[in-house]
Amino acid sequence: VKGETDPPLESWRRIKVRQTPEDVCVSVAAAAVGSTDYTEVPLDSLDISAPDNGSDAETERLEELPLCSCRMEAPRVDGFSARSNRTCMAIESINGELVGCTKVIVKGETMRPSSRVSLMVLCETHRSHMVKHHCCPGCGYFCLSGTFLECCPDVHITHRFHRGCVSVLGCGRSRGGVGVGLLFCPHCGEDASEAREVTIHPAVPSSGSNVVTANVRKGAELQTPPANGTPGGGGVEDVVALGDGGVDSVGPSLVLPNGKPVCPSALPPGDRRAALQKAILTQDTERRKKLRFHSRQLYPAAKQGEAQRVLLMLMEGIDPSYQSDSQNRRCALHAAAQRGLLEVCYLLIQAGAKVDAQDKTLRTPLLEAIVNNHVEVVKYLIQTGACIYHADGSTGLHHAAKLGNLEVVMLLLSTGQVDINAQDSGGWTPIIWAAEHRHIDVIRALLNRGANVTLRDKEMNVCLHWASFSGSAEIAELILNAGCPLSSVNLHGDTPLHIAAREGYIDCVTLFLSRGADIDIMNKEGDTPLSLARSDTPVWVALQINRKLRRGIANRIVRTERIICSDVAQGYENVPIPCVNGVDEEGCPSDYKYIAENCETSTMNIDRNITHLQHCSCTDDCSSSNCLCGQLSIRCWYDKDHRLLQEFNKIEPPLIFECNMACSCHKACKNRVVQAGIKVRLQLYRTEKMGWGVRALQDIPQGSFICEYVGELISDAEADVREDDSYLFDLDNKDGEVYCIDARYYGNISRFINHLCDPNIIPVRVFMLHQDLRFPRIAFFSSRDIFTGQELGFDYGDRFWDIKSKYFTCQCGSEKCKHSAEAIALEKSRLARLEVCPETYSESISQEDPL
């Protein structure tokens, strides 16, 4: 007979008196009337000591497996029910998946199937199953559905346990011992070699549901595992490790004081899972030593990867988020993430560690894992909800790009949670960091995902400036091919050629000169690239040769475009809008004030009351049909790429109501397009016949937002008295007074968009910050695919040309042109013939078209 200590009942021991199978376990009916299988006797009445001079064989004959404690109830533990929020702590294992119970407990007394499992408070349903021996003593999970083994000492009694949790008797005494042990049921100690494997399919999600079907395979073969000595040195009882990687799909587990389970199967197969399994198996033995710990000891234990010691501290209630001033306010999760210790990170987070804890330098555990290139830890921390944004505005992607951790970069991009163009406190984007540190593979990955190479940092440097500063011509060429302007100047007036010449990078200088870089442009100090280069270097020679070649062809007849302004928007738009002129000597337009939002010069009484806004309560990206803002627009007309849907009516566009400041959705939802501003790269240029025009500097897919028509809001009466009405845009309010947008004195890039009889953009009325139907915003969207270099234009309408055709005609040059001088002359000739011979003309029409 062998006794087993049960901490809540320390002064008592259990003994087993085996006479008949009925005495081993009881049926459910017997349990209900209080039948007792186990007799509680005082510890002092038992003679459990072994002879000092006995041999190992004699000792083994005296060994007997400990009985389960399924039918034992421990007293209440103060605060235990409160820590579990009065919720049942039972966990069911269904084919390797863990499902927790959410029922409310009635009794506060604790139960457990064996001493290796932590005490639990259970609901009435799981208390009943515990008494019926339906909880596995090895792992502590309930066997109510899925596949498990059954020991049947009686036709009315079933003991359930997992294949990996059978008890082994007679194993070797040391880690190097050999031999074969016997397999026994962990509930009653019966021979488990004849146990049957049972598969039960759950009838309903409830844990207390009735079983509707059961597939049983009797006589399931159980292979005896090699003998493994326990950490304590006595091979009396051990867990059989099966499954991939030497770890069972269920395996040993326990429940932390906060009610969260710790299970090795939560980690991928390998050394980390094995380390966690070992920590779980040995924790009960180590806890009996009653070691005392201080919160300060958790950090060095986590840093050294001592999962067993960390688990002991957590089971003793040590705060997993403790931050010590001696460690610069770093917590144990910082240390584990820095070392890439996945099993320690798992233990700490399951115990309730703050996943976004910050040290004195504001570094988080996720940042530590990223900086040290621990991909598995990065993946796990993101899955547990770690914030990827740093306090200074940077993200994990910034640090991964800076260090060239391509695998981490791809992982972060695949989550969809990181903004690839996010700017930190210095204005640097991930691709700028990668360019400065010459990580070309990272740059290729970022460019393939659509990284913007035209964004500027706080000193107005673009990505090409940093590529030039790093001296990598290969990276600079990639960035140039991605559309970064070679003529970009920073806050000091330096172009990329200035920087390459100053640093003496001949490859970069050669590349820039081959792309047409201006060697005579001066920075704010009055220096040209040639004056910055040292006279004894190849850079100076290359610049001199290029200068002489340019002077030799300076008098050629063909005029080339010159950049007369790097950004007409003066930084008010998301992307710079350069101005070029290759036609005449006209300078950049300056007879207006550039604004990015509509303005008012007189009171308009626009209803901007936030309580009057109809708004949605979406928690997703507003892609469902339940979004109220989408319903106001008939439906949400934007797709996942923020473009108009193909079925959008381009002839008579409907009103679009975007999500507003009163909505509950995220700012990045799919129904916020116009309010995000200009995203495509445009250029103001001098045309041959129509003055200034706007063209695309990139391919623009159909349905993309181009820009908004911005200007001064005025009434229709005010518009009638204005002398220059060339920039008026009617807002077409059918239910009341009509208002207009006049871009003559205040406007944005849209004021330069010309008329095209075959337009490639269309105006759409959009509401964002308010829903006053008298004042819609006018947004332009591409009506078809627009290619790089094509001019943008929309149809001004027949009303415009009815008046303006008296002063000038359309010069769009389209085959469909209706307002050119030729088209107007043909229309007048047709009308004249119709007035002279209306009948003859009608007959000719009918003959041409018999239908």
What can you see in these coordinates?
The protein is α+β, with helices and mostly antiparallel strands and 851 residues long. Among the domains are: 73-169 and 183-200, no CATH class; 295-490, Serine Threonine Protein Phosphatase 5, Tetratricopeptide repeat; 564-796, Beta Complex (Beta-clip-like). Helix content is 26%, strand content 13%. The chain contains 27 helices and 30 strands. A four-stranded antiparallel β-sheet has the order 8-7-11-12. The longest helix is centred in the first third of the chain and has 17 residues, at 271-287. The protein is elongated and about 115 Å long. Mean pLDDT is 79; it is low at 1-65, 171-179 and 205-250.
Q: What features would you highlight for this structure?
A:
methyltransferase, zinc ion binding, S-adenosyl-L-methionine, histone H3K9 methyltransferase activity, 851 residues, alpha+beta, 4-stranded mixed beta sheet, Serine Threonine Protein Phosphatase 5, Tetratricopeptide repeat, 27 helices, 4-stranded antiparallel beta sheet, ANK repeat, Beta-clip-like
Explain the layout of strands and helices.
Elements: E1 12-15, H1 21-24, H2 28-32, E2 39-42, H3 56-62, H4 80-83, E3 91-94, E4 97-100, E5 110-111, E6 120-121, H5 124-131, E7 146-154, E8 157-161, E9 167-169, E10 182-184, E11 196-201, E12 213-217, E13 254-255, E14 261-262, H6 271-287, H7 298-303, H8 307-315, H9 332-339, H10 342-350, H11 365-371, H12 375-383, H13 396-403, H14 406-415, H15 430-436, H16 440-448, H17 463-470, H18 473-481, H19 496-503, H20 506-514, H21 529-532, H22 538-552, E15 562-565, E16 579-581, E17 593-594, E18 599-600, H23 628-632, E19 656-657, E20 682-686, E21 692-696, E22 705-709, E23 712-715, H24 716-721, E24 728-730, E25 739-742, E26 746-747, E27 754-755, E28 761-767, E29 777-782, E30 793-794, H25 798-804, H26 821-836, H27 838-848
Parallel strand pairs: 16-20, 17-26, 18-23, 19-28, 27-30
Antiparallel strand pairs: 1-2, 3-4, 5-6, 7-8, 7-11, 9-10, 11-12, 13-14, 15-16, 20-21, 22-29, 23-25, 24-25, 28-29
Helix pairs in contact: 6-8, 8-10, 9-10, 9-11, 11-12, 11-13, 13-14, 13-15, 15-16, 15-17, 17-18, 17-19, 18-20, 19-20, 20-22, 26-27
